Inverse folding.
């Protein structure tokens, strides 16, 4: 701190130490040119990956049963969002807390999402405008009580291992059975709209010709099923450091290692509140590192490591040769 | 559930698995380069008459 | 006599910011190692981030998926990011090993950390602005972390419009402002003096 007393020039370096001519502007210009050349070469030789977003249409084409499972999960209120909790709804499934410290709960519902309604029923209702058959199916669904609806879904889920999808139609072992209710037809309609490529648009709706820029609801549809299956194939899961991985053989967000590392080790990898714990840890660690100048011990580590002797070796040698004692 | 069905347009990147550690080769190359470049910067002699 | 705010500001600027300080043509002789270059290389990478980012922003977020030229600019942006963080982390290591916060330079150190943190948000919002599977997966994975600390509602990773706006305006603007402050502090205080050979000394900070 004492150095700042010397006046506006701050450090006493200019008084005590010998100087040499230096051209900062030239150095900066050369650095820009050098990095530019490096970036040009890397871009030319290595390019970048661009794996298109995973769409419901692609899921229907490549693994239709996965979309069926997803839809049934939503109808049966078993998907990851149905009971997620804030900020989407009042569920408890994904709420994290550490004792009384529950910021997720305190924040409350700010982005209301009803996964069954938003991701399945609303797109079907939009479809019904163009197709009266869909309207009748939805009317049948609405006629059932809550318990009845869940029972229909459960009955279909029970026979799913013996079922398949052929030509965008769900083929069940006992077709037309009364215990399935309108669910098989709802699945067929859902497969159809997904095949058309309009499912995500039908979820998020439209404001006339203006683009919808908030895609929360459509993105939440596949997150826990198809997205995860896709990411598994790309080796990008969270327990494989997926948050910071890039598709293909490209470096990812390497600078996040000190955060994503936490998810791999106890207690984080087993905690129900891993995210909260990891974010808090990183916040505290970062704050400590930021405050290094004021923390005895931590601020002395460079003196113990002695790598500064290598950095300033010419300076020390000159001082010694001149017989100086000051350094 | 037939999750084998989805086909990403490219293969997963190479990675190195050791116990709980799963690191992509590309990321390790970057970190390796960081260490090498830093070591070189420490060791290499700055050009000029200053010696 | 009443205080004249304008004159007070002018006097303060003249006293604190001299051109000799901002653009010196002489440096202490101990500035004699390649580790001093990591800062300027980080800055140079940032210049390329702004240049390539401006081109990408001009043509819009869909351009790079359909145009080979756009893809090339995306590649330049991607590798500029890698270079930016690469050199920034090496710069951080070097400043740590020199204990460069000494002599009243603690705000330089703290502003460097703020730059690192805001750059990480820049990286995150950049991934989310890609409108491809990376963006989709980073969004649905990362949302749980944001939600767990209660910020997922107003920093919604699945809201493309919000993430894109942050990425192309608010974060670059904040970075530029902070970089200006960081560089000003570096120039104001000058390059940190060498530690005593034995590491002992009175300037504990």
């Amino acid at each position: 701190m004492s150095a700042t007393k010397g006046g506006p020039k701050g450090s006493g370096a200019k008084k005590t130490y010998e100087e040499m001519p230096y051209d900062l502007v030239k150095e900066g210009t050369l650095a820009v040119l050098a990095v530019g050349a490096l970036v040009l070469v890397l871009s030319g030789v290595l390019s970048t990956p661009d794996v298109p977003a995973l769409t419901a249409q692609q899921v229907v084409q490549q693994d239709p049963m996965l979309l069926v499972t997803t839809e049934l999960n939503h109808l049966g209120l078993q998907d990851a969002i149905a009971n997620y909790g804030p900020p989407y709804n009042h569920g408890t499934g994904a709420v994290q807390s550490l004792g009384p410290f529950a910021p997720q709960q305190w924040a409350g519902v700010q982005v209301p999402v009803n996964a069954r309604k938003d991701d399945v029923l609303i797109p079907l209702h939009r479809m019904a405008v163009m197709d009266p058959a869909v309207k009748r199916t939805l009317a049948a669904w609405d006629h059932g009580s809550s318990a009845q609806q869940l029972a229909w879904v459960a009955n279909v889920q029970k026979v799913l291992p013996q079922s398949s999808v052929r030509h965008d139609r769900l083929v069940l072992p006992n077709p037309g059975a009364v215990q399935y209710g309108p669910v098989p037809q709802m699945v067929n309609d859902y497969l159809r709209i997904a095949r058309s490529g309009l499912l995500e648009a039908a979820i998020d709706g439209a404001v006339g010709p203006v683009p919808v820029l908030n895609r929360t609801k459509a993105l939440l549809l596949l997150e826990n099923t198809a997205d995860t299956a896709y990411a598994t194939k790309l080796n990008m899961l969270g327990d494989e450091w997926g948050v910071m991985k890039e598709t293909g053989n490209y470096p990812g967000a390497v600078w996040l290692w000190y955060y994503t590392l936490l998810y791999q080790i106890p207690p984080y990898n087993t905690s129900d509140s891993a995210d909260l714990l990891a974010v808090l840890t990183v916040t505290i660690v970062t704050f400590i590192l930021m405050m290094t100048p004021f923390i005895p011990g931590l601020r002395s580590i460079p003196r113990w490591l002695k790598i500064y002797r290598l950095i300033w070796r010419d300076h020390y040698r000159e001082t010694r040769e001149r017989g100086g004692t000051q350094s | 559930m037939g999750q084998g069905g989805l086909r990403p347009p490219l293969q997963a990147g190479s990675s190195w698995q050791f116990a709980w550690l799963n690191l992509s080769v590309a990321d390790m190359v970057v970190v390796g380069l960081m260490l090498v470049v830093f070591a070189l910067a420490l060791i290499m002699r700055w050009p000029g008459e200053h010696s | 006599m009443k205080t004249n705010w304008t004159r007070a500001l002018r006097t303060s600027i003249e006293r604190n910011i001299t051109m000799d300080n901002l653009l010196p043509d002489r440096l202490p002789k101990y500035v004699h190692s390649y580790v001093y270059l990591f800062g300027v290389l980080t800055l140079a990478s940032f210049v390329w981030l702004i240049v390539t980012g401006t081109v990408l922003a001009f043509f819009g977020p869909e351009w790079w998926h359909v145009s080979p030229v756009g893809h090339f600019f995306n590649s330049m942006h991607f590798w500029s990011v890698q270079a930016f963080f690469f050199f920034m982390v090496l710069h951080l290591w070097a400043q740590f090993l020199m204990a460069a916060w000494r002599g009243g330079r603690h705000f330089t150190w703290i502003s460097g950390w703020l730059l690192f943190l805001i750059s990480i948000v820049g990286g995150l919002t950049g991934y989310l602005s890609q409108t491809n599977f990376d963006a989709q997966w980073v969004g649905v994975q990362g949302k749980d972390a944001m939600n767990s600390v209660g910020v997922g509602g107003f920093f919604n990773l699945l809201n493309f419009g919000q993430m894109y706006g942050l990425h192309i305006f608010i974060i670059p603007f904040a970075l530029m402002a902070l970089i200006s402050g960081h560089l000003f502090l570096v120039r104001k205080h000058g390059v940190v003096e060498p530690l005593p050979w034995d590491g002992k000394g009175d300037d504990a900070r």
In short: Chain B touches chain C through 13 residues (CB under 8 Å). DSSP finds one helix and two strands in chain B. The first strand of chain B starts at residue 15 and ends at 18. Helices of chain B lie at 25-43.
